[in-house]
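Class, carefully examine what follows:
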Amino acid sequence: MIAGIYRPTRGEILFNGETIARGSKSLGPHQVTKAGIARTFQNIRLFSNVSAIDNVLMGMHCRMHSLPWHAIVRSKSQREEEFRSMERAYELLDYVGLSGTARVAAKNLSYGDQRRLEIARALASDPKLLLLDEPAAGMNPRETATLTEFISTMRTDLDVTILLIEHDMKVVMGISDHIAVLDHGVKIADGSPEEIRENPQVIEAYLGAGSAEVIARLSGESTAVAQEVSTDVSNG
């Protein structure tokens, strides 16, 4: 709904103080993108037979000003815009770690590199809000660790807010400032990583009923053992 694909049946979604979704008045995906929201998909949706550089250039479409007839006559403004866009596309490929792959078809990139290319295409629209839909899905532990580090770098380098949907708790805890936890579509917790990590409802949702009590008891026993060892060492 935030991306404009579905319309809310009730309520509204505000972005930068402006309504972007409210029933029949909801913006379409292209309008949401132009407003400053970009997204990636859980199942990669690149233009697989198109080169990496062209995939990134497609992400810039909403920011370009040249009209079709400008391209036909190859006007000076169109040529300058094309040059700037190509330059920016190369910069983004380099930023996500894909320098040297500009002319490679997207389908020939590794799975992890395809994920990075999709992020580069999203960044090409110059978003204020970047929606990442399970970016670590299908990745091996090494790829996941690399991606987690890269997302943290984006937060530091770019003036962009990141809204991440992810099931991998290690990824979520490693990069988030604020976390909301849903269980079967219902929000059961909302807070900092530390608050979420210790929330009984979250523990039970992930590990099953009664888990919170067991973890609390084990934690208490570990503390007691640590205190006992500390006492013995000091007495010794």
Q: What stands out?
A: Residues 211-235 form the longest helix (25 residues). The chain has a mean pLDDT of 85. The first strand starts at residue 13 and ends at 15.
